[in-house]
Amino acid sequence: MKKLGLVLFTTVCILSLTLAVPAQKKDDKKSGGDATKGEAVFKDKNCTVCHWPDKETKRIGPGLKGLFTHKKMWDDRPLTEANVRDMILKGGGKMTGFEDQLTPKELDNLIAYLKTL
Question: What is the pTM of this model?
């Protein structure tokens, strides 16, 4: 009987801890990139031709200041890291994709930089 009580107590404790700690969404993970290197990618790939990094106003594409504080992207998709990555890689609207021009590490660095804007 003591073993059953101990098992039940342990199970309840584990469940309580599991429910008390909010689950981290896959999209909330850190990109693991370097924002300083990402700024260099932003400049090197000429993102500034279409996007202001320090303004929210539209240039050719949307201004990117505060990008990750918004709830929706300009195409009405939820603004998540996954959707931003998808837009960068595949493009959309007037934006061409950069899938063939960015390494995975450069993309991680770019995302890290965009999160600082």
Answer: 0.73
Exposed, middle or buried, 101 (CB in 10 Å: 0-12/13-18/19+)? middle
Evaluate the CA torsion angle 86, 105, 24, 70 in order and state its sign: negative
Is the distance from CB of 59 to CB of 51 less than 8 angstroms? yes
Rounded Cα distance between 77 and 87, Å, is 10
CATH number of 32-114: 1.10.760.10
Token digits of residue 46: 């000429």
Average pLDDT score over residue span 98-103: 96
Rounded to whole angstroms, the Cα distance separating 39 from 41 reads 5
Structural domain boundaries of the chain? 32-114
